[in-house]
Amino acid sequence: MSSRDRATEVEGLYAEAAQWHVNAGGETIHAKRLSGRWRTFKWLTASVWLVFFLGPYLRWDGRQAVLFDIPNRQYHLFGATVLPQDFWMLSLLLLFFAILLAVVTAVVGRAWCGYFCFQTVWTDVFTWIEERLEGPPAARRRLDQAPFATRLRARLPKHLLWLVIGWFTGFSFVAWFVDAPTLWRTFFTGEAGVAAYVTVALFTAGTYVLAGFLREQTCFWLCPYARIQGVMLDPTTLVPAYDTGRGEPRGRLRRGGEAAAGQGDCIDCNQCVAVCPTGVDIRQGQQEGCITCALCIDACDQVMDKVGKARGLIRYASLDELEGRPTRPLVLRPRVWLYGGILTLALAGIVYGLASLAALDLKVLHERAPLFVRLSDGSIQNRYTLKLLNKTPEPLAVEIRVSGPPGLEVSGLERPIQAAAGVVTPALVFVRVPESALAAEQQPVVFHAEARRGDGQRLDTARESVFIAPAP
Amino acid sequence: MADHNPFPGENNTGHIWDSDLRELQNPPPRWWMIGFWTSILWVVGYTILYPSWPVGEEATPGILGWTQIEEYERGVAQIEARRAEFESRIGALGVEEILADPGLTQYTLASAKVLFGDNCAACHGSGGQGNPGYPVLADDDWLYGGSTAKLTETITQGRKGNMVAHQDILSAEEVDTLARWTVEMSQGEPGSEAGWQLFSTKGCSGCHGPTANGVLAELPGGEVITVGAADLTDRIWRFEPGGYESARHTILYGVNQSGVEQTREAVMPAFGPTARVEDVEIRRLDPQEIKKLVVYVHLLGGGL
Ligand code: SF4
Ligand code: SF4
């Protein structure tokens, strides 16, 4: 390679570097807001978060329908009470959502980022407020340059409103963990717990900073999901994409609205860039900054309508489709099946878990040192520790019956066990089997627990354990 | 350098090699710098408030006066305060009353488990399952009585069995007859006539009781008087592995006989607060601890 060629190569690299638009937050992005199909859709998906704000006020059976009662280690989900013992279901739930994220991303790109993520939704609401109070992007950019005092006066209401939203976010979060009406009563009189105040303070500050200032910077530099989801995309994934074949070579329309001969459909109006909340140019292809919010689709469609061309220059399309390769329908993609299978399994586990959540749970621990004891009359005695978990809110008197080898005698269960509400009550039980009935080294014994609630509801459960004797 | 920068207007640092390779200057984003300086401020604040800089042997104490040991002690005090309620109730109640209260019993079991592990398990096994030569605590065979009062007495004062060695007292056939008789008795059989004859005339019943069940007399209320001699009528052998050879050995050499080389050893030390070991008074277990151990041992299985 001649030194001249080398110089051109290197200059080429620099030219490319100059093209790199590294958005490090030096300049605030003031995205234009347009109405449109996807805009409406985005509001609808964002409204899922209303559940977050309103959920704590749902009541069920005289208490908060969903309450994560950490001090008492109880989790109420409508009629069901989940105790730490049932927490294996949480891992299934986490698995479910992790795989859901994977499958959705593989199929339609970063749909979580674009439509559901709290970072996106809160930023969206914050910028909506900004637009209401300070006007369209041009006015806001002008304000950015204004002297400090002017800026302060013009922007104070916005910041106050942001802080109120931040506070409300924190308050609603806390309301999932303590009784909501009580929280309203105690919060302003200083009687709520320290944890509540600290949480609300952290959320207020966090929401204010993340949605008010960091915005797309969070997605660019802080959020791990942005990177994780990036690697889940493949050429078959549907993402908002610019149809290069149709759009290029781009060029401005001449006066009178005609395109030059051989010109593509993109009229280089930059509307797609103007509306992008992360400030990227989708025409350069799918990129890390794109949260697939589809707002550029709305923008471009409106432009196409105006210039009388078909919509969809920017549309949901896969790389395969854009490059003219055959596309495979969803049902033929192994990845979808694999993810779907895991999803179904996790969901089945959770459903099974919730369906079999008994109000009374019995665990039987067989003593291991010693496994058995010979008594003076030759019979063999085994010692068991019963653990009775009472998930009802009332104390229960639990009767326990033991069935097993013939002639078995039990001590420790003469009186019903008083199982306190919401906790595990242990009890010691001794089972004796006469020498004549010792048929095998191990024989099954079954403990049947039975109790009646105050309203007459009968609760019962059983647990099999083993009776161990010396080899006959 | 900037004077002869061949790339004017570019954000390079002025470091240029080979006439075109150059270092560009892209400052970190502002929010990053803010974070950076905030962290440094944080460190400064932290080192002022908390123990940090090593100065000689010690570290600067920090103006909050926080120390790790204090935090630990606060934690210990917290748990002690929670235990205090149970401990004072255990102190005020008798063993039977503790056993009648399931909650208190559970506390006692948890607390005594440690005591049992430290003091008893070495000989009697972690679950009271016994060891060769050391009695099982989980069965219902008690040499000195299994009532909670007797258990308290045993733990506090210790026990030392005593059985005469019969090697010079009985003839070989007599020893053989008695050993066989013992085996028969342990299997629930009536026992040979000759065996009973020897048992009653050679002084055995003086300790093992007239019916050979180790009981000298029964008191009203279920208590028994024993001298710690084994119950010969039950299925449990005091000295493993049990059976003819074991019985013969015990009859011949006795228990705890000084001067008899093959004698059985059966000594349980005293665990009472004023126990003496070789004339030195040592503190072992206080009455509260013994009370907990009695509950624990009682519930190993033999007390029921
Ligand atoms: S990149 Fe992260 S923060 Fe941004 S929208 Fe996606 S998930 Fe949310
Ligand atoms: S490029 Fe389009 S889809 Fe991607 S973030 Fe910007 S507006 Fe949303």
Automatic annotation (TrEMBL), chain A:
Ranges annotated as spanning the membrane: 40-58, 87-108, 160-178, 194-214, 336-360
Keywords: 4Fe-4S, Electron transport, Iron, Iron-sulfur, Membrane, Metal-binding, Transmembrane, Transmembrane helix, Transport
Gene3D superfamilies: Immunoglobulins (2.60.40.10)
Keyword hit for Oxidoreductase: no
Keyword Flavoprotein: no
Domain 4Fe-4S ferredoxin-type positions: 257-286
Pfam family for this entry, one: Fer4_5
PANTHER family: FERREDOXIN-TYPE PROTEIN NAPH
Protein's recorded name: Cytochrome c oxidase accessory protein CcoG
Annotated source species: Marichromatium bheemlicum
UniProtKB/TrEMBL annotation, chain B:
Keywords: Cell inner membrane, Cell membrane, Electron transport, Heme, Hydrogen ion transport, Ion transport, Iron, Membrane, Metal-binding, Oxidoreductase, Repeat, Respiratory chain, Transmembrane, Transmembrane helix, Transport
Reported cofactor(s): heme c
Lineage: superkingdom: Bacteria
Keyword Plastid found: no
Localization, UniProt: Cell inner membrane
Keyword Iron-sulfur on entry: no
GO molecular function list: oxidoreductase activity
Cofactor-binding details, from the entry: Binds 2 heme C groups per subunit.
Pathway: Energy metabolism; oxidative phosphorylation
Residue ranges constituting the Cytochrome c domain according to the UniProt record: 107-186, 190-301
Subunit structure and binding partners: Component of the cbb3-type cytochrome c oxidase.
NCBIfam families assigned: ccoP
Protein task: C-type cytochrome. Part of the cbb3-type cytochrome c oxidase complex.
Protein name: Cbb3-type cytochrome c oxidase subunit
Organism this protein belongs to: Marichromatium bheemlicum
